[in-house]
Amino acid sequence: MMRAPVFAGVALACTTATGATLAEKAKESGCVNKPMWLAGDTYRCATQSGAFSYFNVPDGNGTPAAGSAPAPPSTSTPKVPTPASFPRVDPETQKGRDGVRRKVLGEELASEEKLLTESRAAYAEGAPPALPEEKADAEKYRARIARLKQTVTVHEKNVEALKKELATVK
User: Fold this and answer.
1) Which residue among 44, 60, 63, 119 is least enclosed by CB atoms within 10 Å?
2) Beta-carbon-side half-sphere exposure of residue 13 (alpha carbons within 13 Å)
3) Are 38 and 31 in contact (CB under 8 A)?
4) Which residues, in sequence order, are CB contacts of 59 under 8 Å at separation 6+?
5) Does this model's pTM top 0.85?
6) Distance between CA atoms of 64 and 20, rounded to whole angstroms?
7) CA angle, 144 then 120 then 124, to 5°
């Protein structure tokens, strides 16, 4: 009888040491259905908006928490060689496609860099001049600054992603 309280205390210590339980994380993520275990300590559930929410619930050993879906059986399929009759693209055609891709990515990068420059100018290091309607309402001004900062961040991420993608083009 003395073991049950000790065991319960250990279980409680484990959940607090590793973070939240599956139910807490699901509630925190806005889940409207039972979270589905994906792999390791990653779960997915649907939210009210219809989007999926992904979150981690570490339990120390990489297995799904109690009450979740069981782990799918390990099914590693052996690599099958590509059949000789499989259609292939000749090197010149692929080179042409890569050139078009590089050109399109370069144009998009130039466009994003221009938008980034414009959005940084509008953001003015977090202190753009207040518009007439914002002088009387400080909350409107703060909301506009937040939108401008978010715009700068989005363009920075886009530029970074395009540069990374361009680096992978042959």
Assistant:
1) 60
2) 6
3) no
4) 14, 18, 41, 65
5) no
6) 14
7) 65
